[in-house]
Amino acid sequence: MNRALSESRRRMAAGFERVFSPASLSFPQHRPPLERPGMIVSIYLLLSVLLMWGADHPLGLWMKDFPSELRPVAKWITDLGEGVEILVTTGVLLILSVFVPSSRLRRRVVVGANSIAAAAAFIFLSVAGGGLTASLVKNMIGRARPSLLDTHGYFSFQPFTFDSDFAAFPSGHSATAGAMAMSLALVFPRLRPLFIPVGALICISRQLVGAHWPSDTLMGWAVGVAFTLWLAHVFARRRMMFFYDRDGCLRRKTGRRVLAGLWEAMRGGVGFAKPV
């Protein structure tokens, strides 16, 4: 047991060292604009400012009249934006990876287990980092929430108050939703048509429950997506999980070896190395 824990600690330390080490690859010369975090933040910031001036107020009035019968449904959807389920799931996977007896398993199985741990770490860091970034920024900006429309209007700011009533822009739930949707879409690209709409629905629900203006949720989504893409580039430039194709696009490394290794592990011990 102690030997297994020692090996696991050594693997985790090597993983952290690899993440924080200097990048072994440079950025591709031709990166798609929508895979550049800075470009995404800039575009969405401009769109958010336009929404503030043109659409936030009328949409805010409409949100106040949203049918109360439908609010429980919107509340259930918006609670998904807290990211608790995804953080717990990936956290448990990371904890379990500590107890993998790598010295007793075949290399193929170890590679599979390490790949799953890396994917769990990527999703966990994306969701946690995106949410924390938005939380810090929105408290620094200090925009009033829609609940204060009658007293403060739709364009009121009190920076650095660190008061929840003045922490609307950008939306933290929307940032978490954007980070969840983008990280899951990058790890499971075939399910992207499912994850992206669900994340967008969480953003819309923040408006339906009266917690945020449309510009808040739009910018929150951008923060979560941009943070996740930044982290994906960090991984790709260190040859972890992702790589760049000929067009400079981010791609996930194939998961066939992961599935093959796990299948061996589940076949009643076939995945264990033969004793010497």
UniProtKB/TrEMBL annotation:
Whether Transmembrane helix counts among this entry's keywords is: yes
Keyword flag Membrane: yes
Q: Where are the transmembrane segments?
A: 41-63, 83-101, 113-137, 166-187, 194-213, 219-236
Topology versus the membrane, per the UniProt entry? Multi-pass membrane protein
Q: Which SMART domains match?
A: acidPPc
Q: Which residues form the Phosphatidic acid phosphatase type 2/haloperoxidase domain?
A: 119-232
What UniProt keywords apply to this chain's record, in alphabetical order?
A: Cell membrane, Hydrolase, Membrane, Transmembrane, Transmembrane helix
State the compartments where it is located. Answer: Cell membrane
Give the protein's recorded name: Phosphatidic acid phosphatase
